[in-house]
Design goal:
It is built from 22 helices and two strands. With 489 residues, it is mostly helical. It starts with 6 loop residues before the first helix and ends in a 7-residue tail after the last helix. It is found in: Endoplasmic reticulum membrane. It is a multi-pass membrane protein.
């Protein structure tokens, strides 16, 4: 029998060492050859030295890589299938990540589904185990991943689970907190300042506010009050203020004026359009008994509960709130709102002098079309346009409202985009119904509790929603744009 040469074995082992990064693997033929070589050398008394790097003990020879591997060792303890994105908990158990997300979403517990031991921190994917399953069971893993991606319920659970992990990480991390930390600090500072100022004014009991005409009966108006009332009607009343002051027209005389009296030489209002405007505003004063509010602060002073309700309702649900104004406050609030946001295409010169007359006309079909399009697509734009019209009266307040309307539009767009990307757009009617029911119940509760709420608390809520909401919404928009995949509902 010819003696086998060691060179081929050395060459094979050397190649295996190179290809497998110094992990040695041998076949059964190589081990038999080694045993045969050792037996022949002992019998003949001949000693041949092999390279020490090629010598391997027969008792320590490794077995084939996949000889004793079974699928049970790489199976999930929830679905009992091959692990996909295996996640290892602190107790040592491994689960598919989507199985763990479904368990967390249904149980709302941070504990192992098998042994019920709570995990620490946020579970991460075991990369080594994932790579091993991908190599050993590539076809099964690929098939299961396609099934997971096609299931919207699993995708939603994974998004919610990842959002929970991101929020947990932001809460525990003090480094690189980003815009949310900055704006939360600003918000805290502004809140403290606002509360201190409001407590001071509320506790001191000092009333620095002048006697507003919106709460003073017309019969008690002085000649100066009548002049102030004319001034608020517009700059076109300037030629007539001197005649009213010269005649010393107080509230009682004002209520007695009519078209013929205004045409006399004492008042000399020969322009018929101006007379109509004065008489129209005078009719409003007679009906209300006080001066109608003409800016935000006067409206808040005259309608404290209604202004607070509209402020929060327009922010939470602008479409339902505008529809409510159409049904229950058509002439006083809805018509001025519509004419301001959607002015007529053709302006007649006769309507320039009186804003009240202009806002009491029935809108044209062009105005209705423009209004309905904005109402359905961009309701917050209507609020921004209304605030823009008050820019000359409320310089900073109008800007806060406009910025807040833009931020709320972005948040609404992000919400619709999430519904589209997560294939949950068909749930929109159900969510709209739930939202409508929630707003109606909250409005009813507000109407019942309003008489028992202190005025100080109402003022705090009003100024919070007016000036602090934009800061909160800036933080929300930054989170939406930086982490759009983790914002699950």
């Amino acid at each position: 029998m010819p003696f086998p040469q060691p060179e081929p074995l050395t060459e094979v082992v050397t190649q295996e060492r190179t290809h497998h990064h110094h992990h040695y693997y041998y076949t059964e033929h190589d081990f038999n050859m080694l045993q045969h070589m050792e037996g022949d050398s002992a019998c003949d008394g001949e000693t041949e030295l092999l390279d020490e790097s090629c010598y391997v003990s027969v008792s320590h020879r490794p077995k084939p890589a996949t000889s004793n591997i079974s699928e049970n060792e790489f199976s999930c303890h929830c679905c009992y299938d091959i692990l996909v994105n295996p996640t290892t908990l602190t107790c040592g158990h491994n689960f598919c990540r989507h199985c763990l997300a479904l368990w967390w979403e249904s149980s709302h517990k941070n504990e192992c589904p098998e042994c019920r031991e709570k995990w620490e921190g946020f579970p991460k994917i075991n990369i080594l185990l994932r790579d091993a399953t991908d190599k050993l069971f590539s076809e099964v893993v690929q098939r299961r991943r396609m099934e997971i991606q096609a299931n919207p319920k699993i995708s939603r659970s994974l998004l919610a689970f990842q959002k929970y992990g991101d929020n947990l990480g932001r809460a525990r991390t003090t480094h690189n907190k980003g815009a949310g930390f900055f704006f939360s600090g600003v918000l805290t500072a502004l809140t403290c300042v606002a509360v201190v100022v409001l407590v001071f004014h509320w506790g001191s009991g000092v009333v620095e506010q002048h006697d507003l005409l919106i709460s003073k009966p017309v019969s008690h108006w002085t000649a100066q009050d009548v002049g102030y009332w004319l001034e608020n009607l517009g700059p076109w009343t300037e030629p007539y203020r001197g005649a009213f002051q010269q005649e010393n027209v107080n509230g009682r005389l004002l209520l007695m004026l009519g078209d013929e009296e205004l045409l006399r030489k004492h008042y000399n209002i020969e322009n018929s359009v101006h007379r109509r405007a004065v008489l129209a505003e005078l009719d409003r004063v007679k009906t209300l008994g006080v001066k109608p509010p003409q800016n935000l602060w006067e409206y808040k002073a005259a309608n404290a509960g209604k202004s607070l309700f509209l402020l929060y309702a327009l922010k939470r649900s602008p479409r339902l709130t505008i529809f409510y104004l159409y049904l229950f406050d058509y002439s006083e609030t809805f018509l001025p709102f519509l004419h301001t946001c959607c002015p007529p295409f053709t302006h007649t010169e006769e309507l320039v002098e009186s804003s009240f007359l202009k806002t009491q006309l029935e809108p044209s079909w062009q105005q209705w079309v423009e209004f309905l399009v904005k109402y359905c697509v961009l309701p917050y734009q209507l609020i921004a346009e209304f605030a823009w019209d008050w820019l000359a009266i409320h310089y900073w307040t109008s800007r806060f409202i406009i910025v807040n309307a833009m931020l709320l539009s972005i948040l609404e767009g992000c919400f619709l985009w999430r519904l589209w990307t997560t294939a949950r757009l068909r749930t929109l009617p159900q969510q709209m119904w739930n939202h409508s029911w929630k707003m109606l119940s909250q409005g009813f509760a507000f109407a019942l509790m309003w008489p028992f709420v202190p005025q100080f608390v109402c003022n705090c809520l009003f100024y919070w929603a007016l000036y602090f909401s934009p800061i909160i919404n800036i933080d929300l928009v930054v989170q939406q744009l930086m982490h759009p995949e983790t914002q699950a509902q």
